[in-house]
Design goal:
mainly alpha, Biopolymer transporter Tol, about 0% strand, 3 helices
Length: about 100
């Protein structure tokens, strides 16, 4: 599209993994916007690295998922999801709604 390669998310990703990766991706994109607005180059670089991890894990960047074996695909998303969880652990939902 418009001179750019476009790839869809790897359809073999388990839904729970795909959802976690999308949450990481959206949080990283928000962090890029915040860092850019603040003029914080280091934070922007770190946030862009998180975007890259998420996009590779989803199969949208890097070696095309259709050229990888099931084992390679699994190793790809497990590796990048672990890296993302180590960098920016998912938010915990400890609060309960009152009512």
């Amino acid at each position: 599209m418009k001179g750019r390669k476009w790839r869809a998310t790897d359809p073999s990703l388990p839904e729970d993994v795909s959802a976690r990766l999308r949450k990481h991706l959206m949080a990283a994109r928000r962090a890029v916007r915040s860092a850019t607005t603040a003029g914080d180059e280091r934070a922007e670089r770190d946030a862009r690295s998180r975007v890259q991890h998420a996009k590779v894990a989803l199969g949208e960047r890097g070696t095309p998922w259709w050229e990888q074996s099931e084992a390679q695909r699994r190793e790809r998303w497990e590796h990048h999801l672990a890296a993302l969880d180590a960098i920016a652990p998912p938010a915990r939902k400890d609060h309960q709604e009152e009512g």
